Amino acid sequence: MNSGNPMPRVSGLRYIALFFVSFLFVLSDVRGQLVEIRTGEGQSKSDTPASGAVDLVATGLQVGDRVPDLLVRNVHNHKTDATRLSAFAGKLLILDFWATWCAPCVAMIPRMDSLQRHFGDRVQFLSVTYQPGKEVLPFLERFEKQRNRHYEVPYITGDKQLHKLFPHRTLPHYVWIDGEGTVKAITGSQDVHAANIGKALDDGLAVTQKRDMKMAYDRNRPLLINGNGGDGRNLIYHSLFAGYTEGLPTAYTLSYMSRHGFNGINATNMTLLQLYRLAYRIDGKYFGWNRTVISTRDSLFLRPPKGTKGADFRAWMNRGNGFCYAASSTRDSLDILFERMRADLGRLFPQYSVAIREKEVACLVLRRTSDKDKIATKGGPVLHEFGNGCRLRNSSLDVLTSRLEIIYLQNQPYPVINDTGYTGAVDMVLEADLTDLGQLNADLAGYDLTLEVQLRKTHVLEIDDVT
Known about the structure:
The chain is of the alpha+beta class. It folds into three domains: 23-52 and 216-350, no CATH class; 54-213, Glutaredoxin (3-Layer(aba) Sandwich), CATH 3.40.30.10; 359-465, no CATH class. It has ten helices and 23 strands. The protein has helices spanning 103-119, 133-147, 161-165, 194-201, 257-260, 272-279, 310-321, 334-348, 397-408, 437-444, and strands at 23-27, 34-38, 53-55, 71-73, 75-76, 82-84, 92-97, 123-128, 155-156, 173-177, 183-187, 213-215, 237-243, 251-255, 263-271, 292-294, 322-329, 352-368, 383-387, 389-395, 416-418, 426-430, 449-465. The strands form six sheets. It has a six-stranded antiparallel β-sheet. A six-stranded mixed β-sheet has the order 5-9-8-7-10-11, covered by helices on one side. A four-stranded mixed β-sheet has the order 16-23-18-21.
């Protein structure tokens, strides 16, 4: 199969003036978790349009620099709650910058604990987060309870000092410091393994320094005009289709007339398959992997080879496989803009046939196991709280199944369907790891609910070659 299909020539590309909203959906790599990141309404002066992308990592301490002997506070899992970095002298110190909302960061906790135990006193992992202890401590308590294990790596909460020394944009982020306090490497999680730690202890570590590119890009102004946009004061309708652009996120944003004075779609650095899944959404629901059927002879123009991540993924995108699409209007609804997006993709890629079809497929079906009503709400303000488990108050089962399908069970091969027939508002508390079907069903059993694989008719997105 050919993974490098040339991008069809697109003449007369149309450009957009588009203002952004305060919710940004980030799709990590290709099959990564869909994460909702809350962003501020405003932006700092450093975010104003400039000439190009900036490597944030390069603005801090670099490999070969000496790290100042800081006094760090809010240290947990340690003999004292404040310590100087010199307390770890003589050891390989690996700073792990993380956050509770970062799934890859959380997945590294058991690995770091295992590596810490393996290397003993020769190595010291130290996790660092900007989040306050009131957010982090309950999260880790639930995390350890789910896994029935205590993790011994010390961690710092509410940090500002180390973040200033080692600025970055993406998580997880690792800084390797030798026993004399000199920076030896700055990496992502892919380089944190026993072989590299052994090389670092022998002073033989050779890895490429992590780069965190940040484009001077104002999310509240139009995209790609005069470096960022123009004022758009006379904008009625505009659309854009462009190739991969270094420094922009793999993300999509929606703007709404009621809040921003126009309706808009903005998608940056996405694969063609991701654009199709966005354009053909139903009732605001993005088509996940578990609802996508690819029947083309050559799928490598739609998505990269399995397992492609990080720099390899960006290189693949940059070979004509990554795209930006935007559309906005002060008159037309979002539904009409999505219709135009589907039509645009059809004109740009006429070799593909894309359709939503109802098919009988294996699904994860949420059903009741008894007639007892154990989920009826007691009232109160509506609450949808998801993270390490979930809390629902005066909510609905559709909210639960939607989050499970799009986020927590997105790597399962099955769509998730609510087949309970329950239409009332519900109260539920699930403490399970929502990515673990066994744990999830154990908690659901307390409400006389279960998730089972059954055949059901449901909508899927099917992509085929035009014959």
